[in-house]
């Protein structure tokens, strides 16, 4: 992230509100600080003590528990709350926002957010969904990193009537955080993320949920690497699973079909089929960029 080159390019906002100063929201704030963002960064949350600590750490300039207070002073609002709260949070912020304000989010689900917000916002206030594909199983601004988004992908999900100038603004935001921006519709996003994010978390959770106490001492590197993401916040993930119900169920059906192929091959001592399945899995894994 080149802070000196970016100073003259921070034209996507004058003042920014971040609602939900956790890992993602805190990392956005940290990145903006590295970029020497010249405006005010308002942090909004439910816990005044936590917000004060985020302020003391230099992540935000002002802290408040009142989203309307911050929204009225900002022309860019980034909502980083749990996915089942984002729609209500956006509507509340939009009611206090000035015309020309852009609102985006960081949610891992898009259809259940972008659909309800495609209409009904005040005139001149625009919502465009975003999903920065970055993070970890850790929580809280204590784990915020200014470089969390470097060279990662961010999906933005405009709708048919999204104003082009506002789309350029949200793309500019994520590009200034060194992200590679991809545009797609919300449904396509949700089906893809069911495969690449939501289903893996579900499988990791199933593996951990079925771990017998007597086997814990035998859960070595392979098990721990495979299930690391199961340490994520259960409350956040149940909301993601339910928010992407259609996409996740579709990919869960696909997973069960493939799992049955493995089971059948093992049951029938079918070494050739099992070898093919494993080789295909290895090719896909080896083909992932680092």
Automatic annotation (TrEMBL):
Single Gene Ontology BP term?
Answer: tyrosine biosynthetic process
Q: Which SUPFAM superfamilies match?
A: 6-phosphogluconate dehydrogenase C-terminal domain-like, NAD(P)-binding Rossmann-fold domains
Which GO molecular function entries does the Swiss-Prot or TrEMBL record give?
A: NAD+ binding; prephenate dehydrogenase (NAD+) activity; prephenate dehydrogenase (NADP+) activity
InterPro entries attached to this UniProt entry: 6-PGluconate_DH-like_C_sf (IPR008927), NAD(P)-bd_dom_sf (IPR036291), PDH_C (IPR046825), PDH_N (IPR046826), Preph/Arog_dehydrog (IPR050812), Prephen_DH (IPR003099)
- The answer to whether keyword Oxidoreductase applies is yes
One Pfam entry name: PDH_C
Q: Which UniProt keywords apply?
A: Oxidoreductase
Q: Which residues form the Prephenate/arogenate dehydrogenase domain?
A: 14-290
PROSITE patterns named among the record's database cross-references: PDH_ADH
Q: Which PANTHER family match?
A: PREPHENATE DEHYDROGENASE, PREPHENATE DEHYDROGENASE [NADP(+)]
- Know the name of this protein? Prephenate dehydrogenase
Q: Which organism is it from?
A: Polystyrenella longa
Q: What is the lineage of its organism?
A: Bacteria, Pseudomonadati, Planctomycetota, Planctomycetia, Planctomycetales
